[in-house]
Design a protein that fits this description.
With about 150 residues, this protein is of the alpha/beta class. It has 6 helices and 6 strands, in the order H-E-H-E-H-E-E-H-H-H-E-E. The chain has a single domain, classed as Ribosomal Protein L13p, Chain: A, CATH 3.90.1180.10. Helix 2 packs across helix 5 and helix 4 crosses helix 5. It starts with a helix and ends with a strand. The strands form 2 sheets. Strands 5-2-1-6 form a 4-stranded parallel β-sheet, covered by helices on one side. A two-stranded antiparallel ribbon has the order 3-4.
């Protein structure tokens, strides 16, 4: 199988999927429980036509990302790490600081951990739209409310 045939295989299968739009309000919700529901909708597990190797999921718009909750001492103890690419460039930050600076990244990291790694997971991750605050740019798509 040629490389061009393999890449078109993913796009051809997912072209038949009916994409819906959902909106999730995270005010007062727990991070992990919300991330599992969001990842499930992004993968398409809520549909009867779910196939593990096909991107058949829906778009998810997340609002009020800064009002997410973490239980226990995770706010102070949970560490998020990333590497800058330079020697000795490992950076660490706590969940509390990440929530203050980039609350959208906290949600994206939690959801990414629940998606498959690779081409399919990256494609599904592009359907997640996270916004700080109650306003978003996707009113024209008429998203349906999704309970977490």
């Amino acid at each position: 199988m040629l490389r061009s045939q393999r890449s078109s295989w993913l796009t051809n299968e997912s072209a038949h999927a009916q994409r819906g739009w959902y909106i999730v309000d995270l005010e007062g919700k727990t991070l992990g429980r919300a991330a599992t529901v969001i990842a499930s909708v992004l993968r398409g597990k809520n549909k009867p036509s779910y196939t593990p190797n096909v991107d058949c999921g829906d778009f998810v718009v997340v609002i009020n990302a800064e009002k997410i909750r973490l239980t226990g001492n995770k706010m102070a103890n949970k560490m998020y790490r990333h590497h800058t690419g330079f020697i000795g460039g490992l950076k660490e930050t706590t969940a509390e600081k990440l929530l203050q600076k980039h609350p959208d990244q906290l949600i994206k990291d939690a959801v990414w951990g629940m998606l498959p790694k690779g081409r399919l997971g990256r494609k599904q991750m592009k359907k997640l739209k996270v916004y700080v605050g109650p306003s978003h740019d996707h009113a024209a798509q008429q998203p349906k409310a999704l309970e977490v």
